Amino acid sequence: MCSAKETVISEKDIGMDLNGKESAMVDVIASFISHTSIRLPDDVIAKLEEMRASETEERALQIYDLMFENMRLAQELKRPTCQDTGVLQFFVRCGSNFPYMGSLEEVLKASVLKATKDTPLRYNVVETFSEYNTGNNTGSGVPFIMWEILPGRDDCEIYTYMAGGGCSLPGQSTVLMPSEGYPAAVKFVMDRITTYGLNACPPLLVGVGIGATSETAALNAKHAVLRPIGSHNENERAAELEKMLEESINAVGFGPQGMGGKRSVMGVNVVNTARHPATLAVAVTVGCWSHRRGRLVFDKDLNYRSLTHSKFDGGAL
Ligand code: SF4
């Protein structure tokens, strides 16, 4: 049986082996995490502005106004846009020649610890079965890090994601019989969104994954919510599915925060990979209105830029 002592990641051990450049990388990533907790991505802000402009229902307009006031105050007071700053996840697309690949896992863990203290972020990591909060936003398998190695490249792209409780709740994957077809996938997504979507603070960004197994579909769904709002799947039929689901979920009439309104989603993104002849796996996950995802790119000399947060200059704000 694991004791609390055995499973807590020791703060003093994280980052001990990092050199000066790696520590500088920790400072940048920690600042970026803080920044993304305080300021939403450019595309999310633009979409919320567009949705507010096209809304006609009085209560929905009041909710949008509150959201924008929330965002203004978050920046003024340097506080996260939502108290639930989630469990940190990283999706790393790293060139095989990136000089710091070997220490990147340590860098990311140290960045989470630093961002947790500096921002501050709420302690959200609870060890399962032992059922205690680690108190520093790290734990067994947290931060979650998913790697993609890009042969021959020397840069590194890091997607950051704060997986909040409410917006993680609707997530589910299943494996359908291919004979059930894509209509069954649509029913699965609609059932899930109409049952749990309200828990996720609409308007939502809905990610749908299609693939061979439950875990590949789930991962595709996550990649879908990392994709920019307004982007479309390259496959014409998948793009049609995105449009159809978006219209269908909007027609449910959640509106912002589920208080009613013309639109319920910021978008529906589908990411698909090939399937087994005998399976059609589908998964859904959602991002909430406070969709804290970021994208940061380092070159081999650790020059960096954000592709999601144009105001990020290395500081929290
Ligand atoms: S769903 Fe999003 S906005 Fe709502 S409480 Fe959770 S993290 Fe915050």
Any overview of this molecule?
This protein has 9 helices and 11 strands. It is an alpha+beta fold and 317 residues long. It folds into 2 domains: 135 residues, Dihydrodipicolinate Reductase, domain 2, CATH 3.30.360; 122 residues, no CATH class. The strands form 3 sheets. A 5-stranded mixed β-sheet has the order 4-1-5-10-11. A 4-stranded mixed β-sheet has the order 6-9-7-8. Helix 2 crosses helix 5 and helix 7 packs parallel to helix 9. The longest helix has 20 residues. The radius of gyration is 20 Å and the shape is globular. The N and C termini lie far apart (44 Å). The relative contact order is 0.20. Bound molecules: iron/sulfur cluster.
Major sheet description = 5 strands, mixed
Shape, per Cα inertia axes: globular
- The CATH class name of the largest domain reads Alpha Beta
Bound compounds, each kind once, are: iron/sulfur cluster
Give a count of the beta strands, DSSP E runs of length 2 or more: 11
Individual helix count: 9
| Radius of gyration from the alpha-carbon trace, in angstroms | 20 Å
Secondary structure class reads alpha+beta
**Spatial separation of the terminal alpha carbons:** 44 Å
CATH architecture of the largest domain: 2-Layer Sandwich
The number of distinct structural domains comes to 2
How are the strands of the largest sheet arranged? 4-1-5-10-11
Taken as a percent bin, the fraction of beta residues is 15-25%
Mean pLDDT value: 94
Helix content: 25-40%
Poorly predicted residue ranges: 1-7
Order of helices and strands: HHHHEHEEEEHEHEHHEEEE
- The CATH topology of the largest domain, please? Dihydrodipicolinate Reductase, domain 2
